[in-house]
Amino acid sequence: MRRHPIFHDATQMLLYLALVFCNIHDLAHIGIQWSALYKVIYYADDSCSLFFAFSECVYLSRTLFLSICVLIFFQSALTINGLIATFFPNVYHNHRKTPGFIMCFIVVLMSLATNFIVITLEDQETPLYSPSCQFFPASAGARANIYLISSIFILVINFLINVGLYLSNKCGRAQIYDISKKYQNLETKYTSKAISLLSLVQLSSLCVYSGGTYIFRTFKDDIPVAYYHNIVIWVYALSYVTASLPLLIIYCIRYVRSHRRKKIKTITNHQETLEFRMGELKNMWTIFARGVFSQLAQCSNSGTPLNSTNCLCPGYTSGKLCEVVKCQRWGIPDQGRCSCPPGWYDKYCGIRGCRPVNEDNMNLEKRSFIIVFNTKTSMKSQLEGLKSAWPWMINSIMTNQNSGVAEYWIENFIFYGFVQGQGALTIVERVFTKSQDVQDFLNTLQLTDGDAEQPILTALKNAQQSIPSMRSHAIVLVFTDSPASDAPALSHRFIDNNIEQHCLQISSLWRSKVSFILNLPDNADFSKDSVDVYRRLASSTHGDLFQIRNAADLENVLKHVIAFYYFPENVHVGYGINGSVTLPTYKDNAGDYVFVLITQDQWGMGDVPVVGDAISWSIGTTFSLYNMMNVNLIKIAPKVYTNYNYRVFIQSKKTVMFAYNDDMNIDFGNSIVVKNISMTSTIRTFGFDNIINNTYQVNDLQNNLLRESYSAKLRPQTDCTVDYYFEAWENTYLCPSGPITQVHNFYLSNVTHQRVTPAYCIDAAHFYPQATNKAKTFFKNTLPYPPKTELNYDLNRDEDTITPLITCDSKNYKVVNDPRLTTSNQFIFILEQHLNNSATYQQLVLDIENIVNLVDTDKNLRKKEFTLIIHDDKVSRVLISTYSPTNFVTFFKTAVQNLPYVANLDNTLGLHSIVQAQKIVLQPTAQIFYFTNQAVKNVQNISRPWDIVDRNVEVNFFTIADGVTTEIFALPKELELVQKMSNGRTIPLGGILGSLYGIFADMVFETALTTDHEKYNCHDLIFNVDAYMERDATNAVVQVVGTGITTIRMFTPDGMIFDHTKYVTYTNGNFASINIDLTKEQKGLWHIGAQTTRGGCQITVRHKTTTGVIMGFANSSFVDVADSQIPLQRTNEANQTLTIPIRVTNQLLTFTANLQIELVNRQRYDMPVFFTNTTVMLRDDVSCAFNLMSARIQVPKQDLTLWTLTGYATNGDVVLRRVFYYYQHIPADSSICNGGQVDALGNCVCSEGHTGEYCWDRFCVNGATLNNHICNCVPGFYGDFCEKELLVPNWNSSTTSSTTSTIQTTTSLTSRISISNSIILLVISLIFLL
Description:
27% strand, transmembrane
């Protein structure tokens, strides 16, 4: 059994137990016979001494009976084993020795118990005699009969069950490749069938023993003595059982091995005819495919189907079908996507690594105006006041008071009305683009009765979380006369996740400026949370708190305070001030207005302080607004002791975005400082040009210094949303819990600008008993990191362990749903700013809406992404990346109409734009449409490792004629390589363009490259190529590129001339695109020819098909993880071999396939040299995501290679054909790896905690989510991998020992599952045995 391990570990343990007790039985039986022989020889003359007293037989009899019990109960255990193997194969396979150990223990325990129940201790003392020790004592006769009857009953039940199991497993062979069964389950069932045969033979013998013994004991007196003693010897069948068991085991082993060999030979023996072999595979995979395509769940949001009802969901999605999107950072849900706060642009607004700035997402010059209005009947006067002041307020707020110029910078108006009354919440929500529409709506607004307290904070939150078109830096006005019914107690522990903290985080991330306009009753208790929460939120967000006493106050606030909130930028703030203050004046330009707003703190008493040497613009009961122009100092003087707030602001578009985080690799952060953690900070400025230096310091709300001033430094990462950072704030535990203020100074050559921004110091998340000022770390060296690269497996496995198809140790579900297998999801336009490209771009403006509609027919599903990048010789900019097709079309037209062009541009940042395009890919795969002028001969090098192109992008180049260059393939060598590596196209444009829609219609869906041939002389003779039209393709696009195309001809597989002219979708003198409807034409091998007036030509064929193909590189046939690029380019080791895993979708795989490798000379693409051709084998699609695998091959050390995968039907027809180009850096370069370490095969060797092809990804623990190389931690954890738990002292705890955080690993989870399943097995075993 050890030499040929066909049996499961649990079965082996039971068989070993049976063999042991077979030997024990035979030894005991031999001992009894020898003792009888001894008495016959020595006591032949004394017949009375020939009998045995039971006291003489105790040990032999009990041993013999114990072995008999074990062998009978062993059959029950073996039956249970077969049941579990048949009906619970997954549980059975995953628990190797556990079921066997449990059942062996129960068998021995039950046998010992039966031994002492049937033969009691009193029976040992009974002075009775018997002719042999193998007989039961007379006093135990009745119990022995009961035992024998029970044994017969148990054995008959076992016999019937095993007959059923045998038939079940025999029938189960027809379902070998059912999707719900893994191949190892098939093996378990088949060996279970063999065990059933073994059990049936054994059970028959045991039934003979039990039944015969019972019959002879019952009818002994009726049987003649001569017959009795002759027959009883043959009836004692235990000897047959013990003797036959080893022979039966050997027979089962040979039987299963023979079956395996036959099956392997049936599938893999090359001596069989191709038709027979393919017929067998077709039958198997037809059954498999029927299960696959009918049973798998339809997952949303890029989820991977696991079975018919469940999906494996990517980060930030949940639900059985991944239908629930969980927007991070208070992004706003929008049809499966998230509208993100500025700086956080991502599919779900998650924490991420550096990404080029999306300028549209960071466009702060378009903002929202939000009104949160409590629609109680008691708010009638406030509503009337709002309606009256609205026209004046909006006209004024749209006007820059410094210049007097009006600007319509409010993109939308959001109204959120609500009232809670009689147990019901009534909500009125509207969004407008024109202020007059708001006025008309307010005139029709109805008020209703409501409760004394209202859910103000919930309304404030929802108003900023329900409209995806909401812009950042919104002005938010909250109108109410009620305390907040949803106000929580003050807490600085944000793990509490209360509504006040939600409002604070939304305001800080969306940078909204919240003003509370309150008309609270005179008896309002300001000490209660329901009222004090307004003051807390206003001070935490640098907002305003207006206490309205009468109608005049309301008019003053709206017409003479809010009306001046034109791009308000704070330069000083102070809250809870109770003395005189003198502040320096900061303004952007000489002559600018400086506004000083004084508001009474809720705790304040007396008059509002005055500002000296200032012009009073508005005086209210609890507030006042002053204006200063040519004054250098601001002097605020209270008349009497009072608490007040001040906010000094200017009207300016020059602003700053400042954020904290605990990891410099994170692109953007937030305004939260977590105490006890070292916090770095980043900053991005808007409108501040020619800054020499910028600094920041931290103050509390009363302007007491908390952290000294630090200067900004240039960030080490490239292409980040935020370019500058500050040194880490180490002693954050000194920060007082609550709101703080950052003071920013920007130093120009002759002036200093200042801004202030809000932030918040929060307490750590969890408590632990012992006091300390440091975070507690639980980073272990044994974190559950799966290996980056798989182990080298023994390729010379024993034939007994070989399966008909190659199986994998674990399935890579990411590959199952690899986006490269489907159509493109992101479309990126890269526009080179060459002056002579303007005519092409104007045509693109005319076509852009139709092009976008082509790929996104349902604009409301938000499934596609659209990006625009421009570049010249100095800068490359991502102008917009959005999931809204309407927004993209509008923005594209405006941006291109205003595009700044450069004359005589001959050296560009084209490569940098391609790198930025790949970094901005949110919805792979992506198609890049790169427009370049042939006059541009050079592209600037970039400080980036050599493998510039990912496999999930396709870069297509539109070359615009310059009137000088005659070679239509005139691309800089760097871009030419990018085009080949990405399977892209080269499309020459020139002369009268006409609509470009036809070209794009032939590009966005027809992406499967099946034919790619070039020739550098197409003018002397016509260039003929073989073109493959795949079986499952619905369309084929033939594109011919050449200088002065004169002839294009096509022949169908039957040799007939094909009239291609009716399928031409776009043509010019140097290019033709022909889209053939293959549902109406023949498929197979076509012949295509082309001729030009001069120079070379290229013929390509691409298909529209649901059959996706991806390739990779691995070091073993049994792993399911592959590199996307050739890893050997990172090592100088010679003569290394790899396997090529391949995934093919929507195929029944009823074909043979081979993979051909050719060497490509980058100077002459038309002369590839054959290198090798290898067979591609099937792999088990159930356990492997890559369902095809090549033999081990030596990959050539060549910079560019051409790989062609071809699949053949049983009749020899080509049914699958794909072409891929792969580039290798020569000489080898390991610098692409994070850490620079590689193994002999070139695989990156990752440091602890990192993984991925290049080791840039992190292993995230404690429930964290990986997004763009960064771990997004759940509250209470931090660190690069979220491996550290943040703990603070719990002074109320009476415990003296520290609590520890247990990091749940895969192993611990599995162990718990093992225990639970072991209990299930134990219960089942007890039921059958009892």
